[in-house]
Design a protein that fits this description.
This protein has helices at about 35-45, 95-110; strands spanning about 15-20, 20-25, 65-70, 70-75, 80, 120-125, 130-135, 145-150, 155-160, 170-175, 180, 190, 205-215. It has about 220 residues and is an alpha+beta fold. Strands 1-2-11-8-13-6-3 form a 7-stranded antiparallel β-sheet, covered by helices on one side. A 4-stranded antiparallel β-sheet has the order 7-12-9-10, with no helix packed on it.
């Protein structure tokens, strides 16, 4: 298997168009990865990872936490953004500067200048965890894009259409890759296939995903 820290081959595109308004930026986060992982450790020290429960009462296989002005949460009452961490009733950790810088840089490269996220969902995957196809539609408006950063173990990103039963394309995500989708693709269904076992040099048997949104 290719070392996840090897440089992309010159023949491999730096970016891939997923659909109109959607782009995959290969290696975009590599220059930030040390800062990002240190920031994740700080965030989870204040608001630990937890397995949220869906409105139907099922625990999610992916562990989650948040940073920023609001955080995405789920429980038996539904999905929503909340300014307080329900674990302790205090504000979520502030969004680190390196998070904002990477999110803005990636969004601009994908054609969305001046992106200013106010929420970042931090997901932790271990082998066997997955995220079923869904739309990000709990935000107040859909004018801003979604910026999704992959760190750690490789994963398979599923990117579908505007209807749940539309055809789904699959893309390999490596450490440092960033996916951005907005505009006509903002409400496309997307997900992550079941994570396969592996050992990443920095994170071991873990994948971390940072999902930036403008929620309010």
């Amino acid at each position: 298997m290719m070392d996840l820290f090897e440089k992309l081959e010159p023949t491999e595109p730096v970016s891939e168009m997923l659909a109109e308004g959607a782009m995959l930026l290969r290696g975009e986060a590599l220059a930030f990865d040390g800062e990002l992982l240190a920031a994740v450790e700080d965030i989870t020290g204040r608001s630990p990872f937890r397995h949220l429960v869906t409105p139907g009462g099922y625990p999610m296989s992916v562990a989650m936490t948040n940073c920023g002005a609001v955080g995405w949460v789920s429980d038996r009452t539904g999905y929503r953004y909340d300014p307080e961490d329900p674990l302790h009733g205090r504000a979520w950790p502030p969004m680190p500067d390196c998070f904002r810088a990477l999110a803005a840089q990636a969004a601009a490269r994908a054609g969305y200048p001046n992106f200013a996220p106010d929420a970042c969902l931090v997901n932790r995957y271990v082998p066997g965890a997955r995220l079923t196809l869904h739309q990000d539609r709990n935000e107040r408006d859909f004018a801003s894009p979604i910026v999704s950063v992959s760190l750690g173990l490789p994963a398979t990103f599923q990117f579908g259409g505007l209807k749940r039963n539309d055809p789904v394309k699959r893309y390999a995500l490596r450490h440092g890759d960033v996916a951005v989708w907005g505009g006509p693709s903002r409400l496309r269904f997307h997900g992550v296939s079941e994570l396969k076992a592996g050992d990443h040099p920095l994170l071991g048997a873990v994948r971390i995903n940072l999902t930036f949104r403008h929620a309010r």
